[in-house]
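Hello, quick one for you while I still have it in my head. A protein chain has come my way and I'm curious about its shape. Can you walk me through what the tokens say about the fold? No rush at all, and the record is pasted right below.
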Amino acid sequence: MTPRLIEATYLHDYTLMLKFQDGSEGEIDLRDELWGEMFEPLKDINLFKKFHVDSEIHTIVWENGADLAPEFLYENLKVIA
């Protein structure tokens, strides 16, 4: 089953706090994921901060159309104990 992201909050640098519908939550640092045509512009921290959680695809989406698979986010979450 595909994990469903329900909340994302900017923390610092390229790190977000994420919450999933199953109760999992934690931090993810996306600094090393910002490569390629869609993601390079997000190295500008002001653009990076302009994301939202899309309620249809259950992941974060940026203004330029970039998004990351919810499975990727879930698998790379640094879970908070």
Summary: Residues 5-79 form a domain with the NE0471 N-terminal domain-like fold (CATH 3.30.2020.10). The CA atoms of residues 19 and 66 lie 20 Å apart. The mean pLDDT is 96.
